[in-house]
Specification:
With 64 residues, this protein is α+β, with helices and mostly antiparallel strands. It has one domain. 58% of the residues lie in helices and 19% in strands. A two-stranded antiparallel ribbon has the order 1-2. A hairpin with a 2-residue loop joins strand 1 and strand 2. The chain is elongated and about 50 Å long.
Length: 64
């Protein structure tokens, strides 16, 4: 894990700071942030589809 974090930091994909014992990593590449946003949109669409399917299976009741 530490090796992976060093590699990310070395490539300038992340910045980091310390807060006591915690190390806070921030993504520095805007392309990565755009990808994360697109993944969120896809996940939200999939969730909406699953909710519609569950509603159809339960006769229109809200999903559990």
């Amino acid at each position: 894990m530490l090796k992976r974090q060093r590699k990310l930091t070395h490539r300038n994909d992340t910045t980091h700071s310390r807060d006591g014992k915690a190390v806070i990593y921030r993504l520095a590449d805007t392309k990565t942030l755009q990808l994360m946003d697109l993944l969120r949109v896809v996940a939200e669409r999939n969730l909406a589809q699953v909710e519609r399917i569950l509603r159809g299976l339960s006769g229109g009741d809200d999903p559990p």
